[in-house]
Amino acid sequence: MASSAVHLVRLARWGVTLARRRALVGVENDPNAPAALRQLVRVARLAALTSKKGPRDYADAFRAIGPAAIKLGQSLATRPDLVGDDAANNLLSLQDSLPPVPFAQIKAAIESSFGQPIEKMFAEIDPDPVGAASIAQVHKGVTTCGRKVAIKVLRPGIREKFARDITTYEWAAAHVEAMGGEASRLRPRLTIANFKRWTNSELDLRREAASASELAEQMAGVPGYRIPAVDWDRTNGRVMTIEWIDGIKISRIDELQARGHNLPALAEKLVISFLTQAISAGFFHADMHQGNLFVEDDGTIVAIDFGIMGRIDLRARQWLAEILYGLTTGNYQRVAEIHFEAQYVPSYHSVGEFATALRAVGEPMRGKPVKELSVGQMLDGLFAITRDFDMQTQPHLLLLQKTMVMVEGIATQLNPDINMWDTAAPYVRSWIRDELGPEAALAERIKQDTETLLRLPGLIRRLEEKYPPKGGAPETPPLPDIKLITDKREGRGWFGYAVAIAAGAVGVWGATALGWIG
Q1: pTM for the full model?
Q2: What does the pLDDT read at residue 190?
Q3: What gap in Å lies between CA 182 and CA 166, rounded to an integer?
Q4: Each residue of 366-414: pLDDT tens digit?
Q5: Annotation says 481 is catalytic
Q6: I need a labelling partner for 466 at 20 to 30 A (CA). Which of 300, 372, 481, 511 fits?
Protein backbone atom coordinates (compact mmCIF):
# COMPACT_ATOMS: atom_id res chain seq x y z
CA MET A 1 0.00 0.00 0.00
CA ALA A 2 1.49 3.34 -1.06
CA SER A 3 1.98 5.99 1.61
CA SER A 4 0.18 9.32 1.67
CA ALA A 5 3.41 11.02 0.63
CA VAL A 6 3.61 8.87 -2.51
CA HIS A 7 -0.01 9.68 -3.39
CA LEU A 8 0.61 13.40 -2.87
CA VAL A 9 3.67 13.37 -5.13
CA ARG A 10 1.74 11.59 -7.90
CA LEU A 11 -1.23 13.92 -7.56
CA ALA A 12 1.04 16.98 -7.61
CA ARG A 13 2.67 15.77 -10.84
CA TRP A 14 -0.70 14.97 -12.44
CA GLY A 15 -2.16 18.25 -11.18
CA VAL A 16 0.54 20.29 -12.90
CA THR A 17 -0.01 18.30 -16.13
CA LEU A 18 -3.75 19.02 -15.97
CA ALA A 19 -3.19 22.66 -15.04
CA ARG A 20 -0.87 23.31 -18.01
CA ARG A 21 -3.78 22.41 -20.29
CA ARG A 22 -6.23 24.43 -18.15
CA ALA A 23 -8.16 21.23 -17.36
CA LEU A 24 -8.67 22.34 -13.74
CA VAL A 25 -10.04 25.84 -14.39
CA GLY A 26 -13.61 24.53 -14.29
CA VAL A 27 -13.08 23.16 -10.79
CA GLU A 28 -11.41 26.39 -9.66
CA ASN A 29 -14.38 28.44 -10.91
CA ASP A 30 -17.13 26.11 -9.70
CA PRO A 31 -18.89 27.63 -6.65
CA ASN A 32 -20.28 24.17 -5.76
CA ALA A 33 -16.81 22.63 -5.48
CA PRO A 34 -15.37 22.42 -1.94
CA ALA A 35 -13.31 25.48 -1.06
CA ALA A 36 -10.29 23.36 -0.11
CA LEU A 37 -10.35 21.62 -3.49
CA ARG A 38 -10.58 24.94 -5.34
CA GLN A 39 -7.53 26.16 -3.43
CA LEU A 40 -5.54 23.03 -4.31
CA VAL A 41 -6.23 23.29 -8.04
CA ARG A 42 -5.37 27.00 -7.91
CA VAL A 43 -1.98 26.09 -6.42
CA ALA A 44 -1.48 23.55 -9.21
CA ARG A 45 -2.30 26.19 -11.86
CA LEU A 46 0.10 28.70 -10.31
CA ALA A 47 2.81 26.02 -10.12
CA ALA A 48 2.29 25.37 -13.82
CA LEU A 49 2.59 29.13 -14.54
CA THR A 50 -0.72 29.02 -16.42
CA SER A 51 -3.48 31.62 -16.57
CA LYS A 52 -7.20 30.88 -16.56
CA LYS A 53 -7.67 32.32 -20.02
CA GLY A 54 -7.20 30.14 -23.07
CA PRO A 55 -8.41 26.80 -24.50
CA ARG A 56 -8.98 23.87 -22.15
CA ASP A 57 -7.81 20.52 -23.49
CA TYR A 58 -9.02 17.86 -21.08
CA ALA A 59 -8.43 14.96 -23.49
CA ASP A 60 -4.79 15.88 -24.12
CA ALA A 61 -4.18 16.28 -20.38
CA PHE A 62 -5.40 12.76 -19.59
CA ARG A 63 -3.48 11.41 -22.57
CA ALA A 64 -0.27 12.98 -21.26
CA ILE A 65 -0.67 11.40 -17.82
CA GLY A 66 -0.77 7.82 -19.09
CA PRO A 67 -2.81 4.69 -19.90
CA ALA A 68 -4.86 4.54 -16.69
CA ALA A 69 -5.69 8.23 -17.04
CA ILE A 70 -6.90 7.68 -20.61
CA LYS A 71 -9.35 5.07 -19.35
CA LEU A 72 -10.37 7.31 -16.44
CA GLY A 73 -10.94 10.21 -18.83
CA GLN A 74 -13.19 8.07 -21.01
CA SER A 75 -15.11 7.06 -17.89
CA LEU A 76 -15.47 10.68 -16.76
CA ALA A 77 -16.89 11.56 -20.20
CA THR A 78 -20.09 9.91 -18.91
CA ARG A 79 -20.18 12.24 -15.89
CA PRO A 80 -21.16 15.76 -17.04
CA ASP A 81 -22.66 16.17 -13.56
CA LEU A 82 -19.20 15.62 -12.08
CA VAL A 83 -16.83 17.27 -14.57
CA GLY A 84 -19.17 19.68 -16.41
CA ASP A 85 -20.59 19.65 -19.93
CA ASP A 86 -17.55 21.18 -21.65
CA ALA A 87 -15.13 18.69 -20.09
CA ALA A 88 -17.41 15.74 -20.80
CA ASN A 89 -17.80 16.71 -24.45
CA ASN A 90 -14.06 17.22 -24.84
CA LEU A 91 -13.30 13.86 -23.20
CA LEU A 92 -15.59 12.10 -25.66
CA SER A 93 -12.88 12.80 -28.26
CA LEU A 94 -10.26 10.99 -26.15
CA GLN A 95 -9.09 8.15 -28.34
CA ASP A 96 -7.71 5.10 -26.58
CA SER A 97 -4.63 4.63 -28.75
CA LEU A 98 -0.93 4.44 -28.00
CA PRO A 99 2.21 3.51 -29.98
CA PRO A 100 2.32 -0.29 -30.39
CA VAL A 101 4.57 -2.57 -28.38
CA PRO A 102 7.25 -4.25 -30.57
CA PHE A 103 6.08 -7.62 -31.87
CA ALA A 104 9.00 -9.42 -30.21
CA GLN A 105 7.54 -8.50 -26.81
CA ILE A 106 4.05 -9.54 -27.90
CA LYS A 107 5.33 -12.90 -29.12
CA ALA A 108 7.18 -13.44 -25.83
CA ALA A 109 4.03 -12.55 -23.87
CA ILE A 110 1.93 -15.07 -25.84
CA GLU A 111 4.47 -17.85 -25.44
CA SER A 112 5.02 -17.25 -21.72
CA SER A 113 1.29 -17.12 -20.97
CA PHE A 114 0.61 -20.42 -22.76
CA GLY A 115 3.94 -22.07 -21.91
CA GLN A 116 4.57 -23.23 -25.50
CA PRO A 117 5.99 -21.93 -28.79
CA ILE A 118 3.68 -19.65 -30.73
CA GLU A 119 3.94 -21.91 -33.80
CA LYS A 120 1.99 -24.65 -32.02
CA MET A 121 -1.07 -22.39 -31.81
CA PHE A 122 -0.89 -20.05 -34.80
CA ALA A 123 0.17 -20.75 -38.35
CA GLU A 124 0.82 -17.05 -38.90
CA ILE A 125 0.46 -13.69 -37.13
CA ASP A 126 0.76 -10.28 -38.74
CA PRO A 127 3.51 -8.46 -36.78
CA ASP A 128 1.83 -5.11 -37.46
CA PRO A 129 -1.14 -4.63 -35.09
CA VAL A 130 -4.56 -3.65 -36.38
CA GLY A 131 -5.09 -1.66 -33.19
CA ALA A 132 -2.97 -0.54 -30.21
CA ALA A 133 -4.82 0.77 -27.16
CA SER A 134 -3.79 1.64 -23.62
CA ILE A 135 -4.42 -1.85 -22.25
CA ALA A 136 -3.82 -4.22 -25.17
CA GLN A 137 -3.12 -4.46 -28.87
CA VAL A 138 -4.69 -6.67 -31.52
CA HIS A 139 -3.02 -8.69 -34.28
CA LYS A 140 -4.58 -10.57 -37.17
CA GLY A 141 -3.64 -14.23 -37.33
CA VAL A 142 -4.46 -17.69 -38.61
CA THR A 143 -4.72 -20.68 -36.28
CA THR A 144 -3.05 -24.01 -36.96
CA CYS A 145 -6.57 -25.18 -37.83
CA GLY A 146 -6.78 -22.58 -40.61
CA ARG A 147 -9.28 -20.15 -38.98
CA LYS A 148 -8.76 -16.40 -39.33
CA VAL A 149 -8.72 -14.83 -35.87
CA ALA A 150 -8.06 -11.59 -33.99
CA ILE A 151 -5.48 -12.01 -31.21
CA LYS A 152 -5.71 -9.50 -28.35
CA VAL A 153 -2.65 -9.33 -26.07
CA LEU A 154 -2.19 -7.27 -22.89
CA ARG A 155 0.67 -4.78 -22.90
CA PRO A 156 3.55 -6.09 -20.73
CA GLY A 157 3.41 -4.63 -17.20
CA ILE A 158 0.06 -2.91 -17.74
CA ARG A 159 -1.67 -4.59 -14.78
CA GLU A 160 0.94 -3.26 -12.37
CA LYS A 161 0.74 0.27 -13.82
CA PHE A 162 -3.04 0.37 -13.50
CA ALA A 163 -3.00 -1.03 -9.96
CA ARG A 164 -0.52 1.66 -8.86
CA ASP A 165 -2.47 4.56 -10.35
CA ILE A 166 -5.88 3.35 -9.17
CA THR A 167 -4.72 3.26 -5.55
CA THR A 168 -3.96 6.97 -5.87
CA TYR A 169 -7.34 7.64 -7.51
CA GLU A 170 -9.00 5.90 -4.55
CA TRP A 171 -6.97 7.92 -2.05
CA ALA A 172 -7.80 11.20 -3.77
CA ALA A 173 -11.51 10.38 -4.17
CA ALA A 174 -11.81 9.50 -0.47
CA HIS A 175 -10.30 12.84 0.55
CA VAL A 176 -12.45 14.84 -1.87
CA GLU A 177 -15.65 13.08 -0.73
CA ALA A 178 -14.73 13.74 2.90
CA MET A 179 -14.90 17.47 2.13
CA GLY A 180 -18.70 17.07 2.12
CA GLY A 181 -21.37 19.07 0.34
CA GLU A 182 -21.58 18.67 -3.42
CA ALA A 183 -18.48 16.47 -3.41
CA SER A 184 -20.28 13.99 -1.16
CA ARG A 185 -23.48 13.97 -3.24
CA LEU A 186 -21.59 13.16 -6.44
CA ARG A 187 -19.95 10.13 -4.77
CA PRO A 188 -16.47 10.22 -6.35
CA ARG A 189 -15.39 7.16 -4.35
CA LEU A 190 -18.14 5.12 -5.99
CA THR A 191 -17.10 6.45 -9.39
CA ILE A 192 -13.54 5.21 -8.84
CA ALA A 193 -14.80 1.91 -7.43
CA ASN A 194 -16.78 1.30 -10.61
CA PHE A 195 -13.84 2.40 -12.73
CA LYS A 196 -11.64 -0.08 -10.87
CA ARG A 197 -14.15 -2.87 -11.44
CA TRP A 198 -14.39 -2.13 -15.16
CA THR A 199 -10.62 -1.94 -15.66
CA ASN A 200 -10.02 -5.12 -13.65
CA SER A 201 -12.42 -6.83 -16.01
CA GLU A 202 -10.56 -5.43 -19.03
CA LEU A 203 -7.22 -6.53 -17.58
CA ASP A 204 -8.39 -10.16 -17.41
CA LEU A 205 -9.03 -11.22 -21.00
CA ARG A 206 -10.77 -14.41 -19.85
CA ARG A 207 -13.50 -12.23 -18.38
CA GLU A 208 -13.80 -10.27 -21.61
CA ALA A 209 -14.10 -13.56 -23.50
CA ALA A 210 -16.76 -14.72 -21.02
CA SER A 211 -18.67 -11.45 -21.55
CA ALA A 212 -18.61 -12.01 -25.31
CA SER A 213 -19.87 -15.56 -24.84
CA GLU A 214 -22.67 -14.47 -22.48
CA LEU A 215 -23.80 -11.64 -24.75
CA ALA A 216 -23.81 -14.02 -27.73
CA GLU A 217 -26.22 -16.30 -25.84
CA GLN A 218 -28.47 -13.38 -24.88
CA MET A 219 -28.63 -12.06 -28.46
CA ALA A 220 -28.91 -15.41 -30.25
CA GLY A 221 -32.57 -14.83 -31.11
CA VAL A 222 -32.12 -11.26 -32.39
CA PRO A 223 -31.89 -11.19 -36.20
CA GLY A 224 -29.23 -9.06 -37.84
CA TYR A 225 -26.94 -8.74 -34.81
CA ARG A 226 -24.24 -11.13 -33.64
CA ILE A 227 -21.11 -11.57 -31.55
CA PRO A 228 -17.88 -13.22 -32.83
CA ALA A 229 -17.07 -16.72 -31.54
CA VAL A 230 -14.37 -17.06 -28.86
CA ASP A 231 -11.50 -19.52 -29.40
CA TRP A 232 -11.25 -20.77 -25.81
CA ASP A 233 -8.27 -23.05 -26.54
CA ARG A 234 -6.19 -19.97 -27.40
CA THR A 235 -7.53 -17.67 -24.67
CA ASN A 236 -6.24 -17.01 -21.15
CA GLY A 237 -5.92 -14.05 -18.78
CA ARG A 238 -3.41 -12.20 -20.98
CA VAL A 239 -4.38 -13.36 -24.46
CA MET A 240 -7.81 -13.55 -26.10
CA THR A 241 -8.41 -15.15 -29.49
CA ILE A 242 -11.67 -14.44 -31.24
CA GLU A 243 -13.19 -14.88 -34.69
CA TRP A 244 -11.92 -12.39 -37.28
CA ILE A 245 -14.64 -10.17 -38.73
CA ASP A 246 -14.62 -9.23 -42.42
CA GLY A 247 -16.96 -6.27 -42.55
CA ILE A 248 -17.24 -2.52 -42.99
CA LYS A 249 -16.91 -0.23 -39.98
CA ILE A 250 -20.31 1.25 -39.29
CA SER A 251 -18.81 4.77 -39.44
CA ARG A 252 -17.91 4.40 -43.14
CA ILE A 253 -21.20 5.67 -44.50
CA ASP A 254 -20.03 5.97 -48.13
CA GLU A 255 -18.82 2.36 -48.23
CA LEU A 256 -22.06 1.13 -46.70
CA GLN A 257 -24.08 3.00 -49.32
CA ALA A 258 -21.83 1.72 -52.11
CA ARG A 259 -22.52 -1.85 -50.96
CA GLY A 260 -26.26 -1.17 -51.10
CA HIS A 261 -27.00 -1.28 -47.37
CA ASN A 262 -30.26 0.25 -46.09
CA LEU A 263 -28.92 2.87 -43.66
CA PRO A 264 -32.23 3.73 -41.90
CA ALA A 265 -32.83 0.00 -41.37
CA LEU A 266 -29.32 -0.36 -39.89
CA ALA A 267 -29.99 2.57 -37.55
CA GLU A 268 -33.22 1.02 -36.31
CA LYS A 269 -31.58 -2.39 -35.92
CA LEU A 270 -28.79 -0.86 -33.83
CA VAL A 271 -31.25 0.89 -31.49
CA ILE A 272 -33.41 -2.23 -31.03
CA SER A 273 -30.37 -4.45 -30.42
CA PHE A 274 -29.18 -2.07 -27.69
CA LEU A 275 -32.61 -1.97 -26.05
CA THR A 276 -32.76 -5.77 -26.19
CA GLN A 277 -29.45 -5.97 -24.35
CA ALA A 278 -30.20 -3.30 -21.75
CA ILE A 279 -33.89 -3.94 -21.01
CA SER A 280 -34.55 -7.58 -21.88
CA ALA A 281 -31.20 -9.15 -20.95
CA GLY A 282 -29.98 -6.61 -18.40
CA PHE A 283 -26.48 -7.15 -19.79
CA PHE A 284 -25.22 -4.75 -22.45
CA HIS A 285 -22.17 -3.82 -24.47
CA ALA A 286 -21.15 -0.52 -22.85
CA ASP A 287 -18.48 0.51 -25.35
CA MET A 288 -20.49 0.68 -28.57
CA HIS A 289 -18.51 3.38 -30.31
CA GLN A 290 -18.07 3.38 -34.08
CA GLY A 291 -14.78 1.48 -34.06
CA ASN A 292 -16.39 -1.48 -32.29
CA LEU A 293 -19.24 -2.08 -34.75
CA PHE A 294 -19.00 -3.68 -38.21
CA VAL A 295 -21.56 -4.42 -40.91
CA GLU A 296 -21.28 -7.68 -42.87
CA ASP A 297 -22.37 -8.11 -46.50
CA ASP A 298 -25.82 -9.41 -45.50
CA GLY A 299 -26.46 -6.37 -43.28
CA THR A 300 -25.68 -8.10 -39.98
CA ILE A 301 -24.20 -5.80 -37.33
CA VAL A 302 -21.25 -7.39 -35.50
CA ALA A 303 -19.91 -5.99 -32.23
CA ILE A 304 -16.36 -6.41 -30.91
CA ASP A 305 -14.38 -5.41 -27.79
CA PHE A 306 -16.26 -6.54 -24.67
CA GLY A 307 -13.99 -5.12 -21.98
CA ILE A 308 -16.67 -2.76 -20.62
CA MET A 309 -20.08 -4.31 -20.01
CA GLY A 310 -23.09 -3.01 -18.10
CA ARG A 311 -25.45 -5.04 -15.97
CA ILE A 312 -28.87 -4.04 -14.58
CA ASP A 313 -31.05 -6.22 -12.34
CA LEU A 314 -34.69 -6.99 -13.18
CA ARG A 315 -36.28 -4.45 -10.85
CA ALA A 316 -34.06 -1.64 -12.10
CA ARG A 317 -34.85 -2.65 -15.70
CA GLN A 318 -38.56 -2.48 -14.95
CA TRP A 319 -38.12 1.01 -13.53
CA LEU A 320 -35.97 1.99 -16.51
CA ALA A 321 -38.54 0.73 -19.03
CA GLU A 322 -41.32 2.61 -17.28
CA ILE A 323 -39.21 5.77 -17.16
CA LEU A 324 -38.44 5.56 -20.91
CA TYR A 325 -42.04 4.81 -21.78
CA GLY A 326 -43.34 7.56 -19.50
CA LEU A 327 -41.04 10.09 -21.15
CA THR A 328 -42.10 8.99 -24.66
CA THR A 329 -45.81 9.25 -23.78
CA GLY A 330 -45.57 12.36 -21.61
CA ASN A 331 -46.63 10.60 -18.39
CA TYR A 332 -44.30 12.64 -16.20
CA GLN A 333 -46.26 11.94 -13.03
CA ARG A 334 -45.54 8.21 -13.35
CA VAL A 335 -41.88 8.87 -14.18
CA ALA A 336 -41.62 11.00 -11.01
CA GLU A 337 -43.30 8.29 -8.91
CA ILE A 338 -40.80 5.70 -10.18
CA HIS A 339 -37.88 7.90 -9.10
CA PHE A 340 -39.34 7.97 -5.59
CA GLU A 341 -40.14 4.23 -5.59
CA ALA A 342 -36.57 3.48 -6.66
CA GLN A 343 -35.35 5.89 -3.94
CA TYR A 344 -33.38 7.86 -6.51
CA VAL A 345 -35.01 11.01 -5.04
CA PRO A 346 -35.24 11.44 -1.24
CA SER A 347 -38.79 11.13 0.11
CA TYR A 348 -38.81 14.61 1.68
CA HIS A 349 -39.18 16.14 -1.82
CA SER A 350 -42.51 16.60 -3.63
CA VAL A 351 -43.47 14.09 -6.31
CA GLY A 352 -45.53 16.76 -8.06
CA GLU A 353 -42.68 19.27 -8.15
CA PHE A 354 -40.34 16.61 -9.53
CA ALA A 355 -42.91 15.73 -12.21
CA THR A 356 -43.04 19.39 -13.25
CA ALA A 357 -39.25 19.55 -13.50
CA LEU A 358 -39.28 16.41 -15.68
CA ARG A 359 -41.94 17.96 -17.91
CA ALA A 360 -39.69 20.97 -18.50
CA VAL A 361 -37.00 18.61 -19.78
CA GLY A 362 -39.18 16.14 -21.68
CA GLU A 363 -41.77 18.26 -23.49
CA PRO A 364 -39.31 20.00 -25.87
CA MET A 365 -38.12 16.54 -26.97
CA ARG A 366 -41.34 14.90 -28.01
CA GLY A 367 -42.06 14.32 -31.70
CA LYS A 368 -38.77 15.77 -32.93
CA PRO A 369 -35.94 14.03 -34.78
CA VAL A 370 -32.53 13.61 -33.20
CA LYS A 371 -31.03 16.26 -35.48
CA GLU A 372 -33.15 18.84 -33.63
CA LEU A 373 -33.16 17.49 -30.07
CA SER A 374 -31.51 14.37 -28.75
CA VAL A 375 -31.50 11.81 -26.01
CA GLY A 376 -28.13 13.20 -24.97
CA GLN A 377 -29.61 16.66 -24.50
CA MET A 378 -32.50 15.19 -22.54
CA LEU A 379 -30.08 13.36 -20.25
CA ASP A 380 -28.09 16.55 -19.74
CA GLY A 381 -31.36 18.21 -18.74
CA LEU A 382 -32.06 15.45 -16.24
CA PHE A 383 -28.59 15.90 -14.75
CA ALA A 384 -29.33 19.60 -14.33
CA ILE A 385 -32.27 18.91 -12.00
CA THR A 386 -30.53 16.26 -9.89
CA ARG A 387 -28.90 18.88 -7.66
CA ASP A 388 -32.22 20.58 -6.94
CA PHE A 389 -33.71 17.28 -5.77
CA ASP A 390 -30.64 15.89 -3.94
CA MET A 391 -30.38 12.85 -6.22
CA GLN A 392 -27.30 10.79 -5.57
CA THR A 393 -25.37 9.45 -8.55
CA GLN A 394 -26.50 6.05 -9.89
CA PRO A 395 -23.39 4.59 -11.60
CA HIS A 396 -25.25 1.74 -13.34
CA LEU A 397 -27.53 4.29 -15.00
CA LEU A 398 -24.61 6.54 -15.94
CA LEU A 399 -22.96 3.71 -17.87
CA LEU A 400 -26.27 3.12 -19.60
CA GLN A 401 -26.53 6.83 -20.39
CA LYS A 402 -23.06 6.83 -21.93
CA THR A 403 -24.00 3.92 -24.17
CA MET A 404 -27.32 5.50 -25.14
CA VAL A 405 -25.48 8.62 -26.28
CA MET A 406 -23.04 6.49 -28.31
CA VAL A 407 -25.87 4.54 -29.96
CA GLU A 408 -27.77 7.74 -30.67
CA GLY A 409 -24.73 9.31 -32.33
CA ILE A 410 -24.18 6.34 -34.64
CA ALA A 411 -27.89 6.01 -35.43
CA THR A 412 -28.02 9.71 -36.31
CA GLN A 413 -25.13 9.34 -38.74
CA LEU A 414 -26.92 6.45 -40.44
CA ASN A 415 -30.29 8.23 -40.46
CA PRO A 416 -30.32 11.95 -39.54
CA ASP A 417 -34.13 11.91 -39.36
CA ILE A 418 -34.40 9.07 -36.85
CA ASN A 419 -36.51 9.74 -33.76
CA MET A 420 -35.08 7.71 -30.90
CA TRP A 421 -38.33 7.89 -28.94
CA ASP A 422 -40.49 6.67 -31.83
CA THR A 423 -38.01 3.88 -32.57
CA ALA A 424 -37.79 2.77 -28.95
CA ALA A 425 -41.44 3.16 -27.91
CA PRO A 426 -42.93 0.01 -29.59
CA TYR A 427 -40.19 -2.19 -28.17
CA VAL A 428 -40.43 -0.71 -24.68
CA ARG A 429 -44.24 -0.89 -24.73
CA SER A 430 -44.13 -4.56 -25.73
CA TRP A 431 -41.59 -5.37 -23.03
CA ILE A 432 -43.63 -3.58 -20.35
CA ARG A 433 -46.74 -5.49 -21.41
CA ASP A 434 -44.89 -8.80 -21.20
CA GLU A 435 -43.03 -8.06 -17.96
CA LEU A 436 -45.43 -5.81 -16.03
CA GLY A 437 -48.85 -6.91 -17.34
CA PRO A 438 -51.40 -8.81 -15.18
CA GLU A 439 -50.24 -12.24 -16.39
CA ALA A 440 -46.60 -11.43 -15.73
CA ALA A 441 -47.43 -10.00 -12.29
CA LEU A 442 -49.39 -13.15 -11.35
CA ALA A 443 -46.62 -15.42 -12.63
CA GLU A 444 -44.01 -13.47 -10.68
CA ARG A 445 -46.11 -13.63 -7.49
CA ILE A 446 -46.58 -17.40 -7.84
CA LYS A 447 -42.82 -17.79 -8.43
CA GLN A 448 -41.90 -15.71 -5.37
CA ASP A 449 -44.44 -17.44 -3.10
CA THR A 450 -43.29 -20.89 -4.26
CA GLU A 451 -39.66 -19.98 -3.59
CA THR A 452 -40.65 -18.74 -0.13
CA LEU A 453 -42.48 -21.99 0.67
CA LEU A 454 -39.50 -24.03 -0.50
CA ARG A 455 -37.23 -22.06 1.86
CA LEU A 456 -39.41 -22.74 4.94
CA PRO A 457 -37.97 -26.22 5.79
CA GLY A 458 -34.44 -24.83 5.77
CA LEU A 459 -35.53 -21.88 7.92
CA ILE A 460 -37.11 -24.25 10.50
CA ARG A 461 -33.95 -26.37 10.58
CA ARG A 462 -31.81 -23.31 11.26
CA LEU A 463 -34.16 -22.21 14.05
CA GLU A 464 -33.89 -25.64 15.67
CA GLU A 465 -30.11 -25.45 15.47
CA LYS A 466 -30.20 -22.03 17.11
CA TYR A 467 -32.79 -23.03 19.76
CA PRO A 468 -32.48 -26.82 20.26
CA PRO A 469 -35.06 -28.71 22.40
CA LYS A 470 -34.28 -29.21 26.07
CA GLY A 471 -32.26 -32.33 26.87
CA GLY A 472 -32.03 -34.47 30.00
CA ALA A 473 -29.73 -32.09 31.90
CA PRO A 474 -31.38 -29.56 34.24
CA GLU A 475 -31.65 -25.97 33.10
CA THR A 476 -28.65 -23.82 34.02
CA PRO A 477 -29.41 -21.45 36.94
CA PRO A 478 -28.83 -17.71 36.57
CA LEU A 479 -25.16 -16.82 37.01
CA PRO A 480 -23.83 -13.53 38.45
CA ASP A 481 -22.60 -10.88 36.06
CA ILE A 482 -18.83 -10.65 36.59
CA LYS A 483 -16.88 -7.70 35.16
CA LEU A 484 -13.88 -8.95 33.21
CA ILE A 485 -10.54 -7.20 33.22
CA THR A 486 -10.67 -7.19 29.42
CA ASP A 487 -13.92 -5.20 29.47
CA LYS A 488 -12.88 -1.64 28.67
CA ARG A 489 -16.39 -0.29 28.90
CA GLU A 490 -15.82 0.42 32.59
CA GLY A 491 -13.16 2.94 31.65
CA ARG A 492 -10.21 0.84 32.83
CA GLY A 493 -7.36 -0.54 30.76
CA TRP A 494 -4.89 -3.27 31.53
CA PHE A 495 -2.70 -0.87 33.51
CA GLY A 496 -5.46 0.01 35.97
CA TYR A 497 -6.29 -3.58 36.61
CA ALA A 498 -2.62 -4.46 37.08
CA VAL A 499 -2.32 -1.74 39.73
CA ALA A 500 -5.48 -2.98 41.46
CA ILE A 501 -4.22 -6.58 41.48
CA ALA A 502 -0.81 -5.52 42.81
CA ALA A 503 -2.43 -3.45 45.56
CA GLY A 504 -4.63 -6.36 46.49
CA ALA A 505 -1.65 -8.71 46.64
CA VAL A 506 0.27 -6.32 48.91
CA GLY A 507 -2.76 -6.03 51.17
CA VAL A 508 -3.11 -9.81 51.46
CA TRP A 509 0.64 -10.17 52.20
CA GLY A 510 0.50 -7.47 54.89
CA ALA A 511 -2.57 -8.98 56.53
CA THR A 512 -0.86 -12.38 56.63
CA ALA A 513 2.32 -10.91 58.15
CA LEU A 514 0.27 -9.28 60.92
CA GLY A 515 -1.50 -12.51 61.63
CA TRP A 516 -4.88 -11.20 60.54
CA ILE A 517 -5.19 -14.00 58.02
CA GLY A 518 -4.32 -17.53 59.09
Answers
A1: 0.69
A2: 81
A3: 23
A4: 666 655 655 556 655 665 676 677 776 566 566 777 787 778 778 888 8
A5: no
A6: 481
